[in-house]
Amino acid sequence: MSRASTAPTAPATRRGALGRSTLRAQFTLVIFMLAFLPNVVLTVTARPSVPTSTLLAWMLIVGSLCALVGYVLSGTLLRAVSRLQNEVERGDFTQPHPDDPSEILALRGAFSGLLDRLGTEQGRRNAFMATLVHDLKTPLIATGHLTRALTTLPLPDEERRAVGDQIQAETTRLLALVQQMADAHRFEQEDVTVHLVPTDLRALVDSVAARLAPQATGRTLTVSGHGYAGADPTVLDRAVTNLAVNALRYARTHVELTVTARGIEVTDDGPGLPAPLDTLAQPFNAQPTTIAGQQYTAGTAGLGLFIVRRIAEAHGGGLHYDRAPPGQPPDPDPSVPPADLTRFTLELPEVTP
């Protein structure tokens, strides 16, 4: 184990020392030439009658002194570089020194920024693995138990159908989560490609509402407003569906999809976001999030919001969140005061009536 961890370090150290020595040799040569050549010219032109052997001896002395001066000065010039290299190899290079030139300070900043980005990527990679282990394991375990019950227990036909429906539901949930993870990873690495065409936004939200109506058990799902905009209907449908599914998950009594002059609003009477949108809409965030008493580990809660935001940005708009004052009381019980509504706005440019 120790050999595996130290083997790459020794060649890297040798390469660093070789590169530093080469750079110092180049500096030494430049200083030597700048100091030695004028001495050669002055000596030859000033004392033409001096014997050749004496001139050669003098040139040898002058050349040695110039080489020594060049070597010492090059070491002084490269001292900050050598110090930075040693600190980088030790992993402790964030603190600048008073004699650091601006170029070395810039290198320190660049190295620190690189380490920060690597740390962020490592954290997201760890969170991605945590998502795989935690969130995919739950439906897989449930499916395994249901399959075992279906194949080993003498269930009546009605119960067998119910177990089969549960297996189908868990499979659908698993596939949806895998698709969201794949989309979030792809949208994080590359731009979202859209093909804009004139789109009837009311028809699009009507389609989403009709498709999600079976999930609105015990809650009302309404649609209002009209408008047209340049959009990619297939991609935009995915964004509106993500927002509507999220709203149905947390709404108490009702969800409304509205076409406005700004774009498409999805409003519900749920508890709202527990943190700022910019914090939650991050894929594979390592921080757990609790919404309506349910904890989501490793950024699962932010996958859908991140996808919606990237789709909105690809259309030239954005995703906004706020708490809106209620219109009509959502609860017919007059003793229950109306609460502020959760409102997401998928902003689109140039929406026309």
Task: Describe this structure as you would to a colleague.
The protein is 60% helix and 13% strand. The protein is elongated, with a radius of gyration of 34 Å. A 5-stranded mixed sheet has the order 2-4-5-9-8. It has helices spanning 2-6, 9-46, 52-77, 79-90, 102-135, 137-152, 157-189, 201-212, 233-250, 277-280, 300-314, and strands at residues 197-200, 220-224, 228-231, 254-259, 263-268, 289-291, 294-296, 318-324, 341-347. Mean pLDDT is 77; it is low at 1-9, 289-293 and 329-334. A hairpin with a 3-residue loop joins strand 4 (254-259) and strand 5. It is an alpha+beta fold and 353 residues long. It has 3 domains: 2-118, no CATH class; 136-189; 197-347, 2-Layer Sandwich (Heat Shock Protein 90), CATH 3.30.565.10. InterPro entries: 2C_sensor_his_kinase, HATPase_C_sf, HATPase_dom, His_kinase_dom, HisK_dim/P_dom, HisK_dim/P_sf, Sig_transdc_His_kin-like_C. It is found in: Cell membrane. Keywords: Cell membrane, Kinase, Membrane, Phosphoprotein, Transferase, Transmembrane, Transmembrane helix, Two-component regulatory system, Virulence.
